[in-house]
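Please review this one:
***
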Amino acid sequence: MTSRLEWTTIDCADPRRLAEFWCGVLGYVVYEDKGEVVGIGPDPEVPDAERLADLRRGPVVPSMSFVRVPDGKSGKNRVHFEITPIDGDQRSELDRLLALGASTVDLGQGENLPWVVLADPEGNEFCLARSLAPGEFQL
């Protein structure tokens, strides 16, 4: 018996703003907006039965929920996302993410690493890893 990661929930001050940022990063769309909770994912038009069958078959692209909470972020994330460009180089993707509202973060990670540490508009850290685009990916 196993389980599947279906979605990730992120506490935040402004669910809609953070949802729009991550939609831009991942190419997702908002499928639910209740004000205090905003859900985003890759395809809201997939029927529930098909989505459930996909989940049972194996890992799928998870959805995300953003929930308004009264307290702000404090300290470094204990869990973070690793974002990987799939159709361009890492530098171009970095420029795109910065234009969407990401910022670079120094957590003491050092220099000349194959990833870049960033933060979303509410300070949640994530990493931009190497590109998987044709001609870019190297082991």
Summary: Residues 15-26 form the longest helix (12 residues). The chain has a mean pLDDT of 88. The CA atoms of residues 88 and 133 lie 6 Å apart.
